[in-house]
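> example.struct
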């Protein structure tokens, strides 16, 4: 099933969408990647859902990617004797490690790492940023604060600490158990929460090895400070705008989003824009004009994928949300202005340049000069297709690979139509013949059309993309 667009769509599965029938409907409506949110649900439920996805994949004959989203650390206050407390601007209040129920003067904050990092003047945000307090005095077990923006604080409300680096691992014990379970399910991507620095990804990378690709969720201001290093250490980036919008001024989030997408394009790493993209469609069968513009902006800026969360997980109109996003993407990609934006933002060579970069840059130029109907990449690891996608060529990228895991991972990448190679190639002539047959069979061109092919010689060796060839489609059965 060919998608007539370049940007991909991710859908979060949940009670409204994790049945076999609904997963089939969502895929047919345009979903490329299914997200399993391990903040919710039991392992047995996720296992059933993953199997439903693989059943659809087998039935449709198209690679489908599964994204495992780890919960990460959750910072929360303790409980109150009366269930809640109303904080008013200007009043003083205390957070501490004492596990006694909270009262009018104090409440537990069971995270010693926070107290070890706090300084006078630091801010704490509570209940998704609705309440803001500032630290007056603190030590290793308590902090006296003054309320800046008041509101009701109740049991187990979330806490954000935007101003400082917290010495907390992004992987909790639950995350490690979830990750081991997900890897046994042969998931394709792992999204890691609470990434603050590139070093935070080291444990996840070690645990995953080469069984999946690693995506960093950027949720904290400190991650933006270390953006370049995090992008370099990750395989993809998710712009988690919900938490970013809590921990930094909301008017900064669109600017940060563009900054992240630019950094990912430069590095040839996929970028996902997430959170509240079509939020109103949880209850409404149509999006708002503002939401339509939000999705369109991400597509204009070159996002590899846009993501639906509650809209498909618990919303009343999951299929309609996917259909709306599909229509928005296709409309934007028909606009010649998008091509001008892509060309204006063409990535300049970085510090680390490989032969594959030169080959893919030539591929981009060839697609501009010649009427190429498709660009064809032979890839073992997916690297060549990632690099080709970075160029944002006019013609679609057919990523042909002998590895099922690679084909599934490529379902996330901009403009890449992943095809599983069913036989070994040992010669250039065999490669060209395969490219012609595949392009015709997948409906990307007709007899006489021109295609551009990239590959590595010798065949079957990772990271050896060193060849670009142009050829015309022909009838191989009658030649």
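> example.seq
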């Amino acid at each position: 099933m060919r998608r007539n667009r370049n940007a991909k769509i991710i859908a979060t599965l949940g009670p409204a969408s994790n049945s076999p029938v609904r997963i089939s409907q969502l895929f047919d409506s345009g979903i490329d990647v299914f997200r399993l949110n391990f903040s919710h649900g039991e392992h047995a439920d996720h296992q059933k859902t993953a199997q439903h996805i693989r059943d659809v994949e087998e039935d449709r004959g198209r690679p489908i990617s599964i994204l495992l989203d780890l919960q990460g650390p959750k910072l929360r206050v303790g409980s109150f004797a009366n269930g809640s407390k109303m904080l008013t601007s200007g009043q003083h209040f205390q957070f501490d490690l004492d596990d006694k129920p909270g009262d009018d003067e104090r409440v537990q904050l069971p995270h010693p790492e926070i107290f070890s990092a706090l300084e006078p003047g630091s801010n704490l945000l509570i209940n998704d940023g609705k309440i803001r307090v500032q630290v007056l005095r603190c030590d290793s077990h308590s902090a006296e604060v003054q309320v800046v923006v008041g509101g009701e604080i109740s049991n187990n409300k979330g806490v954000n600490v935007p101003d400082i680096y917290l010495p907390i691992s992004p992987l909790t014990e639950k995350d490690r158990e979830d990750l081991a379970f997900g890897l046994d399910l042969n998931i394709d991507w792992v999204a890691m929460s609470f990434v603050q620095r590139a070093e935070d990804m080291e444990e996840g990378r070690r645990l995953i090895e080469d069984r999946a690709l690693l995506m960093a969720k950027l949720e904290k201001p400190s991650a933006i400070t270390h953006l370049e290093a995090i992008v370099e250490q990750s395989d993809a980036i998710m712009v988690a705008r919900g938490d970013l919008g809590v921990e930094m001024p909301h008017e900064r989030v669109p600017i940060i989003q563009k900054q992240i997408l630019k950094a990912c394009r430069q590095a040839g790493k996929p970028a996902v824009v997430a959170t509240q993209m079509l939020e109103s469609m949880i209850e409404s069968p149509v999006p708002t004009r503002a939401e339509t513009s939000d999705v369109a902006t991400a597509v204009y800026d070159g996002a590899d994928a846009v993501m639906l969360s509650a809209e498909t997980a618990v919303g009343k109109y999951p299929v309609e949300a996917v259909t709306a996003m599909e229509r928005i993407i296709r409309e934007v990609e028909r606009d010649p202005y998008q091509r001008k934006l892509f060309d204006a933002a063409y990535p300049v060579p970085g510090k680390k340049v490989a032969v594959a970069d030169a080959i893919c840059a030539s591929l981009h130029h060839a697609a501009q000069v010649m009427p190429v109907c498709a660009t064809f990449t032979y890839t073992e690891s997916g690297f060549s297709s990632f690099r080709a996608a970075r160029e944002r060529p006019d013609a679609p990228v057919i990523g042909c690979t002998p590895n099922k895991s690679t084909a599934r991972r490529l379902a996330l990448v901009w403009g890449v139509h992943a095809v599983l190679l069913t036989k070994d190639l040992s010669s250039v002539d065999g490669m060209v013949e395969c490219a012609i047959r595949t392009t015709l069979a997948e409906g990307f061109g007709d007899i006489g059309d021109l295609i551009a092919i990239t590959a590595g010689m010798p065949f079957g060796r990772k990271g050896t993309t060193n060849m670009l060839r142009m050829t015309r489609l022909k009838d191989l059965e009658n030649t």
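> remarks
The mean pLDDT is 92.
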